[in-house]
Q: What sequence folds into this?
């Protein structure tokens, strides 16, 4: 039977020749048999045999073979059996009718038998094909149920379809958004080469293009397409027939299965409908895989977000959070790189973190990218519009930035803004080298990472703000403490300059006092140019500078650039590399007194609240100056009181010396004269006069002591050195003097120093039980420094009401200082400093 089937597939001319050869052979065989048979019965049996033979030939070969065979047998039967036998003429009508009926019956019966056989064979073949198809479907369904990877499923389906339907190439194709398709599954017979895992255009004439256009199963007998298309690949294989069936996933045309053959008879009829059953299983596999992938991606994404959120909650540094976000985002989105950029506000964005080897090599941390104007990169679009943007194919994006991205191997990208509060801080971008769109949900997924970045930045800024405020308050407290302690204005000025330089991260800090006209005096200076403008220097502020603007306006000011600015300060600023400056006024009692200014060498402008922060320190300078003025006025007032008291004592001493003391001296002389003229023998009167004279002398001595205590005359006449020497001579305790005073000091200074030494010697004699006292005095830098020390018992306490309290008041009233050290058993030491006032 197989031989007959092969014969039936011969060309038509060969089949005709073969059928006539079969007829001739049959005639010869019949003639040989019938020639030796005379009996009619035997001849009839042979006729029946011939009939069966014709029927068999029609059954197993075809009617085309049965007709010539039957006609040959009929002619042979007529020649040898029907009378008159062996005629050379055509059979008569009766014999012809018998022969025709004989032939028709044999052929008809053979055709019916052949038809029945064909139907039986077709049914058997169909049952086999259905069984094979069901077995193939079961194998595919088992693979799908087992959760095999999509790539494995695609290849298995392609092999099953190719083998079931006798195809030479079977392709599972995934449609892309740009009328291209990616070969995700492939099976072919040996020798049939087809690009695997390739991305091909879907155009021209072919099953893949027809399925894409119609979304239905199709059959085609022609494959034509452009270079690089899937139709052209089939055409190069010599495919003559092909079928395709769509793969529909969740109502969306996902791809197609295409089978093709080079045989002229093509693939079996209805193959496209049968293949559709396989595509449904493929769709199920894709849906299941997508569901599993979505769950896995969601789990991975949530885990990544938790890890980043943990860092944020731990108050990790922004740099650490940035690096973690870039790393996690690159891992979550798979086969992409991630970059985090900070908008610098100058038309560029700084790369602060990179995840993925591709971008890390092309755009390392610290790279500046242009994002100003009409920037055409995804980062520029995001920062300009403040919303998520994407570029699905950089090949079609115009502009230099897009061209640079293409050169760096970036095919597509998606970006999302990072918004901190109401401020657009920067952007997070994911990119892939392939020019194919990232999934549509990418923007929403990136936004979650952007929110965590924003939270981390906000937290870091809040912590930095708290730390800054704490540092600022600490600096203000330190300066305020100096002010409250009554530190000298130069000390306060220098402290303000130092604290502000550190707090503002400034490169230059000036505290200046405005002078009449257009000049100012530098009171404190911190920075690289401090040597060129030391404290005490007077310079002109004419021209363009924050100092000039503050003086004109009386309020804070800033300059963004000194390029092209006029004036001495502008020249000094340019020489020092100064780019940006901010100034705040110093106002004392409602009057503009001076200015505090800060400068930076960097291009970026300092924060907007810099003026306000500087004003806080300027207020402390105001207070320090006001306090210094008040203290100076108080000291001057107390000094005037001390001077007035000293003048009063001096007048009182002079009045005593010139008045009462002189009269007492005169009376003493008169009394001495009276004693001289007292008559001899009047002893009672002489004794009385002597007693009066002694009392008068004692009163005169007491008056001299009183006059000396009120204001020692020797101090006015000879100065501090003779007066201290006189005190040492009169002291009950030996005194060692070390005096280095070569000039007269101010009267009030000399009086104060005299009383300090006098009180110290008195205390040493009365309370300390000292054996010696050392007194040193010297003038240094306009300051009189006194040191008085004894070797007594110590333990002196000014609070117990000794004369030291009055001395302290006198010294401080003159703007001086006094220090007392009196540890028990170690003696007492006084250290006094008095500012000298010209006499």
A:
């Amino acid at each position: 039977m197989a031989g007959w089937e092969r014969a039936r597939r011969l060309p038509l001319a060969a089949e005709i020749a073969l059928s006539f050869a079969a007829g001739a052979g049959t005639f010869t065989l019949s003639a040989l048999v019938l020639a030796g048979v005379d009996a009619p019965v035997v001849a009839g049996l042979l006729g029946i045999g011939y009939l069966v033979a014709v029927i068999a030939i029609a059954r197993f070969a075809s009617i085309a073979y049965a007709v010539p065979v039957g006609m040959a047998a009929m002619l042979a039967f007529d020649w040898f059996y029907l009378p008159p036998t062996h005629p050379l003429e055509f059979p008569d009508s009766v014999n012809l009718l018998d022969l025709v009926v004989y032939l028709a019956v044999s052929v008809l019966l053979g055709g019916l038998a052949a038809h029945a056989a064909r139907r039986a064979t077709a049914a058997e073949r169909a049952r086999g094909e259905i069984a094979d198809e069901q077995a193939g479907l079961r194998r595919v369904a088992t693979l799908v149920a087992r959760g095999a990877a999509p790539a494995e499923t695609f290849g298995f389906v392609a092999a099953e379809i190719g083998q079931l339907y006798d195809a030479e190439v079977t392709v599972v194709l995934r449609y892309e958004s740009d009328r291209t398709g990616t070969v995700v599954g492939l099976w072919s017979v040996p020798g049939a080469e087809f690009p695997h895992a390739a991305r091909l255009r879907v155009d021209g004439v072919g099953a893949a293009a027809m399925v894409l256009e119609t979304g239905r199963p199709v059959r085609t007998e022609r494959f034509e397409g452009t270079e690089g298309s899937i139709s052209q690949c089939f055409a190069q294989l010599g495919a003559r027939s092909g079928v395709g069936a769509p793969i529909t996933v969740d109502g969306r045309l996902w791809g197609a299965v295409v089978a093709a053959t080079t045989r002229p008879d093509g693939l079996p009829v209805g193959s496209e409908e049968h293949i559709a059953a396989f595509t449904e299983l493929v769709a199920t596999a894709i849906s299941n895989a997508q569901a599993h992938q979505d769950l896995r991606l969601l789990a991975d994404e949530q885990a990544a977000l938790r890890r980043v959120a943990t860092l944020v909650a731990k108050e990790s540094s922004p740099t650490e959070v940035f690096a973690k976000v870039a790393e996690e985002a690159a891992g979550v989105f798979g086969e992409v790189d991630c970059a985090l950029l900070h908008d610098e506000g100058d038309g560029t964005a700084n790369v602060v973190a990179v995840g993925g080897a591709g971008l890390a090599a092309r755009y390392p941390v610290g790279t500046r990218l242009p994002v100003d104007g009409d920037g055409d990169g995804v980062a520029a679009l995001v920062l300009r519009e403040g919303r998520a943007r994407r570029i699905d194919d950089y090949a079609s994006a115009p502009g230099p930035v897009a061209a640079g991205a293409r050169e760096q191997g970036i095919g597509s990208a998606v970006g999302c803004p990072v918004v901190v509060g109401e401020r657009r801080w920067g952007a997070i971008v994911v990119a892939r080298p392939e020019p194919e769109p990232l999934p549509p949900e990418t923007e929403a997924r990136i936004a979650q990472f952007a929110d965590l970045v924003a939270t981390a930045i906000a937290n870091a800024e809040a912590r930095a703000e708290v730390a800054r405020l704490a540092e600022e308050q600490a600096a203000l407290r330190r300066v305020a403490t100096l002010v409250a302690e009554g530190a000298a204005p130069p000390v306060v000025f220098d402290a303000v300059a130092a604290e502000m330089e550190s707090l503002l991260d400034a490169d230059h800090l000036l505290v200046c006092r405005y002078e009449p006209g257009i000049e100012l005096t530098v009171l404190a200076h911190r920075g690289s140019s401090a040597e060129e403008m030391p404290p005490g220097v007077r310079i002109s502020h004419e021209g363009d500078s924050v100092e000039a603007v503050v003086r004109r306006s009386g309020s804070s000011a800033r300059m963004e650039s000194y390029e092209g600015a006029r004036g001495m300060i502008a020249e000094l600023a340019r020489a020092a590399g100064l780019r940006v400056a901010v100034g705040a006024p110093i106002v004392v009692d409602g009057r503009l007194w001076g200015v505090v200014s800060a400068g930076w060498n960097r291009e970026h402008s300092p924060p907007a609240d810099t003026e306000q922060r500087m004003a806080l320190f300027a207020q402390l300078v105001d207070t320090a100056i006001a306090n210094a003025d008040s203290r100076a006025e108080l000291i001057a007032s107390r000094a005037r009181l001390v001077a007035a008291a000293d003048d009063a004592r001096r007048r009182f001493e002079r009045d005593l010396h010139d008045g009462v003391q002189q009269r007492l001296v005169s009376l003493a002389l008169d009394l001495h004269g009276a004693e001289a003229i007292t008559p001899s023998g009047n002893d009672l009167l002489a004794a009385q006069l002597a007693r009066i004279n002694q009392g008068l002398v004692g009163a005169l001595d007491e008056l001299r002591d009183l006059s000396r205590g009120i204001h020692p005359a020797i101090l006015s006449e000879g100065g501090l050195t003779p007066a201290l020497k006189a005190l040492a001579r009169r002291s009950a305790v030996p005194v060692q003097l070390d005096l280095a005073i070569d000039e007269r000091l101010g009267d009030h200074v000399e009086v104060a120093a005299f009383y300090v030494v006098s009180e110290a010697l008195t205390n040493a004699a009365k309370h300390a039980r000292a054996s010696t006292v050392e007194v040193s005095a010297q003038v240094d830098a306009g300051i009189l420094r006194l040191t008085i020390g004894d070797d007594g018992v110590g333990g002196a306490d000014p609070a117990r009401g000794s004369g030291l309290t009055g001395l302290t008041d006198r010294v401080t009233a003159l703007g001086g200082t006094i220090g007392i050290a009196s540890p028990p058993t170690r003696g007492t030491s006084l250290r006094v400093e008095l500012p000298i006032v010209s006499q």
The longest strand covers residues 252-261. Residues 1-10 have pLDDT under 50 and may be disordered. The two ends are 150 Å apart (CA to CA).
